[in-house]
Amino acid sequence: MALKKQRGFTLIELIMVIVVLGILAAVALPKFADLGGDARKATLQSAQGAVKSAAAIVHAKALVDGQTGETGSVSVEGVTIDLVHGYPGVKPIATAAGISAQDYHIGVTDKETTISGTKDAGKSAIKDCSFTYQAPTAANTAPSISEVTFSGC
To answer: How far apart are the C-alpha atoms of 39 and 71, rounded to whole Å?
Structure first.
């Protein structure tokens, strides 16, 4: 009696491979499912860095121009920035940092500017995914820039 050579895989082997691939996919999928939140966090952190840098650059320009009083203004790259104690005020900080309302939700009050991430550019803000900028309230003090809150990203 001649023995037949086996060719291919048996049905049980194919089913086991499919089961193993399914388990691997179930474990790996959650790691890649919400990369949008991470992207929003990184974008907001870069905006915060831009605000910190802009405040420092405008302050340096104000020191050079002798504009360290309670009010004043300096021109940076052709844009006039109103100052409070030598730092950008709450209204011009977004302009100084190059932050656009098309990319972020920018809320301005008399005391602070809040910059929030958005779900889509130009759409409503994501709550609890923001940071605030407060201009200095006295001479020889720096502005207050809060840490980015991420609970709602």
So the answer is: 37
Report the C-alpha gap between 41 and 148 in whole angstroms: 8
Residue ranges of alpha helices (H) inside the chain are 11-33, 35-65, 93-97
Eight-class DSSP state of 151:
T
Q: Record the pTM.
A: 0.73
Nearby residues of 122 by Cβ (< 8 Å), 6 or more positions away: 101, 102, 103
Residue 48: its H or E element: helix 35-65
Over residues 50-80, the pLDDT tens digits come to 999 999 999 999 999 888 888 888 988 888 9
Neighbours of 86 (CB within 10 A): 28
